[in-house]
Amino acid sequence: MNSMNSMISDIKAALSPLETSEPAFRQIAAVVKPDGIHGALAYLKNKGFTQLCILTCIDWIEDSQFELVYILFSWTDGIHIQLRARIDREKPFFTTVTDIFPGARYYEREVHEFFGVEFCGNEDLYKPLFLELWDDIPPLRKDFDPQAYSDSKFPMRENANEFLSMTGGGDDE
Amino acid sequence: MNEVKLFLGPQHPGMHGNYSVHMYVDGDIINKSRPTPGFLHRGFEKLMERRLWMGNLALIPRICVPEPDINEMVYAMGVEALAGIDVPEKAHWIRMLVLELARIAVHTMSLGFIGGPTGMYTATYWAIAQRDLILDLFEELSGARIYHMYIIPGGVRKDLPDGFAGHVLEKMAELETKLPEFGELILKHPVIHARAKDNIMLPAEVVWELGVTGVGMRSATGLANDLRKVKPYARYDEVEFEVPVAVYSDALTRLNLKFREIYQSISIVRQVLEKMPADGPVNVPVSPGNALRWTVPAGMVYAAVESSRGEYGYFIVSDGREKPYRIAVRGASYPQGLLGIEKYLKGYRIDDASLWMDTMGVCSPEIDR
Q1: How many domains does chain A have?
Q2: Taking the domains of chain B in order of start, what are their residue ranges?
Q3: Is residue A52 part of a domain?
């Protein structure tokens, strides 16, 4: 088992991350530039981080940025790594990582559907996955308001008073 | 060739939850298959961003219906890592007790639900009966049968009720006398052998390609890759248990591993009751004031536990306010339930499709969320 400190110094030397931290027990977080993600994933996979746990995205609407998060796990060392990179929110384009982790294909489709990030090279990207016939902005973006969407899709019916008068209830008797 | 498009699910006796697979079949051989999730999509990740840190406790167990406690555990672990809360010693042990009882319940049920795809419903009835007896224990512990909301950030909600340990031990002894009958009925039954033996293969390279974890990974690779061993949480490093493994992964092997894991969980439950501190606090206050105005320090953390189907985790982002900024759920059945069905279901027969989903451990609520 490699120790956490040697792993962190290896990562610093090989990936030159913008920042690293230890957010929890046996967990490393590294922020890299967007064009460094591919190299970093390939490097980490060779270092034993053979499992992509999740690929997800965070909408930092105040900074006008999306943050892509790749979480890897090494079964030999028992260490989780969060690899993060920020991309422009107005031009949310990124390249697929399915050549390194084939299992990322559906995660990328999910991030595309819920955040609108386009992963070039993922051929299934435009097929709907969870949301059928969706006609609004991607729903996990921070500027999507579920209440407003729900009110516009399912308007309130105003028939309560009619119902009361039909059954003889109400105040008028 | 005369290809027909066939929908399996969301309403089908062999199907687990509201999940659908669109299959293109020739005769009864599947030529192409496409997973169709979303029937159970309730927008949990968006809902969690709109609720208080404490209010989320009522929401998160609903993500995975058969095994809700893992949700509470990963949420609590993540929030504790962000807020720097030290959990009292006794709470760790109670958490392990709850998680292992839940694992026994869900493994028993998933062994029995082999009755759906194979038509042997006796197994299902037996399994549901045994699971209900474990749910009785949960009812005694927390007041609720399915969604307990018992593990909270900072510990567990309440101490064990009087006499609870005795009831657990009685139930474990009773289960141990019943389990050999399960083995006779399910694992040695000619019907199950005809359907599950040398069928629904999962080679080791597919495990690494898809990222399958849990029983699937351990049955194919022969590695004891269990998060309880590799990266122990709670006090799993202080109890002794084995991780059953195999190097040939057909459906029957995976059923066998689940069966053996039940015995290991029973052993862990007994050790927990033995080693648990007799008294002491079971939770610490998470905030000095009102829990409704509780804020969690800004940060990002990933917390993961070993569920009955594999690695289950939450990625939690806080911006230092009263509500989570973002929570992403990593369901253990995501890799095999989506990409696995698309790539590796073809070539099997129609009636094997639901058996495939059953023994690979596909749980639709945690895929859809």
Answers
A1: 1
A2: 3-368
A3: yes
How do residues B94-149 score in pLDDT, each as one tens digit? 999 999 999 999 999 888 888 878 888 888 888 889 889 999 999 999 888 888 88
The CATH number assigned to the domain holding A99 equals 3.30.460.80
| Segments forming the whole domain that contains residue A24 | 4-132
In a domain, A150, yes or no: no
Q: What is the CATH number of domain B3-368?
A: 1.10.645.10
**Interface size between A and B, measured as CB pairs under 8 A:** 94
> How far, CA to CA in Å, does B309 sit from each of A108, B25, B330?
22, 29, 12
The model's pTM? 0.88
What CA dihedral angle connects B131, B136, B137 and B138, to 10 degrees? 90
Q: What is the C-alpha end-to-end distance of chain A, expressed in Å?
A: 83
Does A75 sit within 8 Å of B299, measured CB to CB?
no
Amino acid at A130: F
Give the number of C-alpha atoms closer than 13 A to the C-alpha of residue A161, restricted to the C-beta side. Answer: 3
- Strand runs labelled E in chain B: 3-8, 20-26, 29-36, 151-152, 155-156, 299-306, 311-318, 326-330
Residue A15 lies in a domain: yes
Amino acid at B190: P
Write the CB contacts of B164 (distance below 8 Å, at least 6 apart in sequence).
Answer: B137, B140, B141
**Residue A137 lies inside a defined structural domain of this protein:** no
Chain B residues closer than 8 Å to A96 by CB: none
Distance CA(B2)–CA(B233), nearest Å, equals: 53
What DSSP element (H or E) covers B129?
Answer: helix B121-142
Cβ contact, residue pair B339, A102, below 8 Å:
yes
Name B178's Cβ contacts closer than 8 Å, sequence gap at least 6.
B126, B130
